[in-house]
Design goal:
Layout lengths: L3 H21 L19 E8 L2 E8 L6 H14 L15 E8 L3 E2 L7 H4 L5 E7 L2 E5 L3 H5 L3 H11 L12 E12 L6 E4 L2
Antiparallel strand pairs: 1-2, 1-3, 3-7, 4-7, 5-6, 5-7, 7-8
Helix pairs in contact: 1-2
Length: 197
Amino acid sequence: MLSLDEGKMAVSLARNTITEFLENGTKLDPDSVSLTTVFEEERGVFVTLSMKGDLRGCIGHPYPDSSLKDAIVDSAISASTRDPRFPPVKPEEMHLITVEVTVLTPPEKIDAAPAYLPDLIEIGRHGLIVKQGFYQGLLLPQVAPEQGFDAMEFLNHTCIKAGLAPDAWLTGAEVYWFEGQVFSEDSPEGQVVEKQF
């Protein structure tokens, strides 16, 4: 688990990375920033950008495939410039954008019969990944409480995100869960808080 101070470092690293990339076209070197040793650990992470309450970009590393600091830098640039759902963020938008960083636990396959999955999933605690063949979709733990989903709706929407039928979790798709620590600005460029659901 990260401390609140480390969460503030994570959000600051994400925001500064985006600003540097949008204004200068250069990638921030995370080694130039004062960080704690947790940022050297391999962790999954997502960077989420919101503007006026609406999603403006969200990309990350579901698996712990690189150091937390490198994953934040990569995810921050991707969320601001490579999310196919949105045009790239413009530098002048950054003062309107709220930056959120979610640090993930490694995903684990849920070892249970499909019919039992809705009873096992805790809304606000678990994020989900659904996989079938080449299809894969992920929803972060905060999505279900923010959207008012129950566990079955959360499973259905993760399948839809993967490009599968909503009930694919009942018909053979693999379901994985993970947890996340969510650190977010409470307003654009505002105080960083740890969100609880």
